[in-house]
Amino acid sequence: MVSKRPPDTALLAARAGRYREYAPPPALRRHFSRLWSNTLHDGPPAAVAIVPDGYCDLLWMDGRLDVAGPDRTAAFPAIRPGSTIIGARFAPGAAASWLRTPLSALVGLSVPLAEIGRRDTSEFEARLRDCPDPETAAALFGRLLEEAACDEDEPARDAALIFAAADSGRPASSLPDRLGMSERQLRRRCHHHFGYGAKTLERIRRFQRFLDLCRRSDTMSLARIALEAGFADQAHMTREVGALSTLTPALILDQLGMREEVSG
């Protein structure tokens, strides 16, 4: 179950467990940008914040394959302490084709893959349930995706260009001219491949630049991070970060930054 109601405090998913991500094998790189796993810490359950990143993920958790659709704001799923989630992050433009579903239909949702109608879902789930441990399941998960990828079309190239443009920090208003599309065509393609429009995607990718700067920061001030990430100023960053994550920039910097490691 996924809740959109923010708890009093929450841990970003990367801090709530042992999170690892790695590049997919060559056969999957057209369709997936990252493979990853996250084993949550044991102990009292903590509120876990899944923040928007502009992607859609395929997940193996609790004996079932789920699709985590793109988010506009943070989600707070109920996840058992000690459980392991194995995931594959779709490359821009790949998810809608792979799932035979426009991502606008999956915004803010976590949906069993079986409900979307892929024929191979039951077989994949049965084989993954037979794995004795998460490491074996992660290896098999990757192999099953490679098998499925053989029958998939190339991801939409225009979606990759739209994503790269949003990731560059350039204004979304310049996208139609740069991509040779009308505003209406761009809006339709964005909703199909990302679930929302270009301006929302741009906001989310700027927020992700903020998170990346926090991960690499040991001495950078919040005001400097705001400018480096592409916000107008620190107040703008505080509003945007709060709207997208429900957390403050200072709290996120405390969770992700290098200050503790450096001071120790």
Automatic annotation (TrEMBL):
Xref: InterPro entries: AraC_XylS_family_regulators, DUF6597, HTH_AraC
SMART domains noted in UniProt: HTH_ARAC
Q: Which GO terms describe its molecular function?
A: DNA-binding transcription factor activity; sequence-specific DNA binding
Q: Which UniProt keywords apply?
A: DNA-binding, Transcription, Transcription regulation
Q: Where in this chain does the record put each HTH araC/xylS-type domain?
A: 173-255
Question: Which PANTHER family does this one have?
Answer: BLL1074 PROTEIN, HTH-TYPE TRANSCRIPTIONAL ACTIVATOR RHAS-RELATED
Q: Identify this protein by name.
A: AraC-type DNA-binding protein
Q: What taxonomic ancestry is recorded?
A: Bacteria, Pseudomonadati, Pseudomonadota, Alphaproteobacteria, Hyphomicrobiales
